[in-house]
Amino acid sequence: MSKRPSRGRKLRLAQAPQRLTPRLLTPFERELSTKRRGEISELAFALAAARHGFGISKPFGDSERYDIILDPSHLTSVIPTEAGRKRAKSRHLLFDSPRPRLVRVQVKSSTQLLNGLYHINAHRRIHGRAVPYKLSEIDFIAAYIIPEDSWFILPLPHVLGQTSLLFRPKRSRLPGLYDSYREAWHYLHEPDGLIFA
Q1: Is 7 inside any structural domain?
Q2: 17: helix, strand or coil
Q3: How far apart (Å, rounded) are the C-alpha atoms in residues 82 and 183?
Q4: Residues 6+ apart with CB under 8 A from 101
Q5: pLDDT digit string (tens) for 178-196?
Q6: For residues 117 and 144, is the Cβ–Cβ distance under 8 A?
Q7: Which domain holds residue 151?
Q8: For the domain that residue 138 is a member of, what is the CATH number?
């Protein structure tokens, strides 16, 4: 004689959550979310650069290799910071040139850890092949680590030829290869003063 489940057991079984397998995103949906993340990262970079006193321009369309153009000629910190105050004192020494140099920035972002590191694609694609950026295309890569809300400002000559960059989290005990570029906004302030290896 088999036992029939009690009324309370039937209710619990009916209320038990169904195990759902996550639906895989289509390539179009993946591209849409990646593109949206890139657009939001560009906005975040523009805001951060404005806070550092840069004039900001966005190229019309998306045919150029760079996402943002910075104009360092009128650097004054819009939102006062300690770094902004120091810059204001030495501003007259930095920009004596009548014709300012515009800075071309490619913005990249990452959200997930892979083997304990954040991964950034530092390349463009030509016929499906990953091709590193050239000095004739961009001046800097600004890598945004979204979960940590931190920026890595990388002069292109310092990572020339690389198609992939790996960043350690802030709390990592191990030193990261690009730790010296974390929040290195000063590189953007003096792009002509960079010493390239």
Answers
A1: no
A2: coil
A3: 14
A4: 72, 191, 192
A5: 999 999 999 988 765 554 4
A6: no
A7: 27-193
A8: 3.40.1350.10
- Map 28-97 to HEC letters: HHHHHHHHHHHHHHHHHHHHHHHHCCCEEECCCCCCCCCCEEEEHHHCCCCCCCHHHHHHHHHHHHHCCC
What pTM value is reported for the model?
0.71
Would you call 26 helix, strand, or coil by DSSP?
coil
Residue 21 DSSP SS3: coil
**84 neighbors 52 (Cβ within 8 angstroms):** yes
- Distance between CA 191 and CA 60 in Å, rounded? 24
The Cα 60–Cα 85 span in angstroms is 33
The predicted-structure confidence for 102-153, as pLDDT tens digits, reads as follows 899 999 999 888 899 999 999 988 999 999 999 999 999 999 999 999 999 9
Q: How far, in Å, CA of 42 to CA of 36, rounded? A: 10
Q: How many structural domains is the chain composed of?
A: 1
CA nearest neighbour of 191 among 46, 49, 40, 48: 49
* 122 in Cβ contact with 162 (< 8 Å): yes
In a domain, 1, yes or no: no
